[in-house]
Amino acid sequence: AIHNVDEQERRRQYCERIERAVNRLPRIERDLIRERYLADDAEYITDQNVYSFKLQISEGTYSKRRWRAFYKLALSLNIAAVKGKEGES
To answer: C or N terminus of the chain, fewer CB within 10 Å?
Structure first.
């Protein structure tokens, strides 16, 4: 029973950490993440719906901004993996 309470608290703190990191993003990137991944109906929304109707930007611009937003989130959350050249340690 104690494990369940601890796990629930750990999950709540993790979600709050994600929300704080998203809130620190520039407005355009923050809006993209919220519209596509954090909305109540996010599982039913497609990328095309977000970039065409909600943000009204091109697919290429959307892809670049999404990549940049996730990269910044990964850095903020200390989960970014830097890929080096082969043979480097």
So the answer is: C
Distances in Å between the Cα of 5 and the Cα atoms of 12, 13, 14, 15, 17 are 11, 12, 14, 16, 18
Q: What is the pLDDT of residues 5-58, one digit of tens each?
A: 789 999 999 999 999 999 999 999 999 999 999 999 999 999 999 999 999 999
Closest CA to 65 of 28, 25, 20, 23: 28
Residue 46 tokens, joined: 């497609």
The two tokens of residue 15 are 């979600």
Taking the C-alpha atoms of residue 55 and residue 62, their distance in angstroms, rounded to an integer, is 9
* Burial of 1 per CB tally in 10 Å (0-12, 13-18, 19+): exposed
